[in-house]
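User: I need a structural model of Probable membrane transporter protein from Paragemmobacter aquarius for a docking pre-check later this week. Nothing fancy, just the predicted structure tokens so I can convert them on my end. Input:
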Amino acid sequence: MDLIMAGQGAGAFWVAVAVTLVAGFVKGAVGFAMPMIMISAFSSFLPPDLALAGLILPTLVTNLSQALRQGIGPALATTAKFWRFLLAMAVFIIVSAQFVRVLPQPAMLLLLGVPITAYAAFNLSGRSPTLPLRHQRVAEWGLGVLGGLYGGVSGVWGPPLLVYLLSTGVPKLETVRALGVAFLLGAVTLLGAHIQTGLANPASLGFSAALVIPAQIGMSLGYALQDRLDQNRFRWWTQAVLIVMGLNLIRRALM
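Assistant: Understood. Predicted structure tokens for Probable membrane transporter protein:
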């Protein structure tokens, strides 16, 4: 057990397992929010470095499942469609990961949390903004950079992509698949970056690997719910989860 507990007590380990199971369920249902749930809960009872390292392997494995759920062909097509966002995100995850221990995280979390919450609340009020076609390429590059900057230091890079997908009216299945592809690429990049920084080491990765099982169980349960959601209900739930995520980012920043 010492190999998977990373020096933490049994109580902390089993709480981490329970948190990961819940996070996996939410991700299976709406396609995102797993890293946010995990890092938010983990930060309350685990050392900061271990909290971030713990989510790396569960997010990598569950995103592989999510990206390939309809097969490799659709996954490759989605990758080609959103390559600008994915490239910018990957590059800036590597860049920002080098500063994980020195950047003022509260300020970054606040700058992400406020607009994300405002955007989702605006959508839930019944006024859904759309992105003009001529601006989509610029938005892909810009939001990809933004997602990467936050991803390298917090392990969370999904909200900017979700804002883009909702603003351009992408259907449910492609939205979930695009999130899976982006999160998979981000998770691989994050793993590589933090192997270099030393945050991902044998002890922390053993702990992270143990959380893959509850993550996958939660995902399977969440998929069953996702399959029963129509486009409108799916959109409503994604907006609701975005608001919770945004408010949590603000809470973390202020604390």
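Before docking, keep this in mind: The longest helix spans residues 172-197.
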